[in-house]
Amino acid sequence: MIQRICRLYCQDADDRKDLFQEIVLQLWRAYPRYEPRAKLSTWLYRIALNVAISSLRRRTRAAGTDELNDEVLNVAQAPQSGYDEEEIEALYKAIERLSDVEKAFVLLYLEEHTYEEMADILGITQNNVRVKMHRIQEKLRHLFSVIQ
């Protein structure tokens, strides 16, 4: 799970290693505050995503540009047949244009988490997840049509 998050938020292998170490360090520091009433995986995801998003923001501010990640969907399973390479590439490019938080939603969706699980991981309500997922889908449809 941590490896997938690192691949989503870092193109460079060295940056992925640094992010992985930073996430593990934050998990270690936060462990004394872990409360078993929440699922461990939910707690891990929340910390890992927060660290990854913060790290990406720091890197992009330092570089002065937006980092677009060519490997956004490597966390997903291979696409089903019926899609040609151009459509798949257009989808990758559309996802690259999403915000950091929207990418986190896409990652959780592609890993087939329920809205309830997504809400727990992200610390928001299920209704908020539904609304945000709907908006992300609309945004992706628009971006996909523009890119194609």
Automatic annotation (TrEMBL):
Residues 2-61 form the RNA polymerase sigma-70 region domain. The keyword Transcription regulation applies. Keywords: Sigma factor, Transcription, Transcription regulation. GO terms for biological process: DNA-templated transcription initiation. Coiled coil: none annotated. Gene3D superfamilies: 1.10.1740.10, Winged helix-like DNA-binding domain superfamily/Winged helix DNA-binding domain. Residues 89-136 form the RNA polymerase sigma factor 70 region 4 type domain. One of its GO terms (molecular function) is DNA binding. PANTHER family: RNA POLYMERASE ECF-TYPE SIGMA FACTO, RNA POLYMERASE ECF-TYPE SIGMA FACTOR. Belongs to the sigma-70 factor family. ECF subfamily. This is RNA polymerase sigma factor. It comes from Hymenobacter jejuensis.
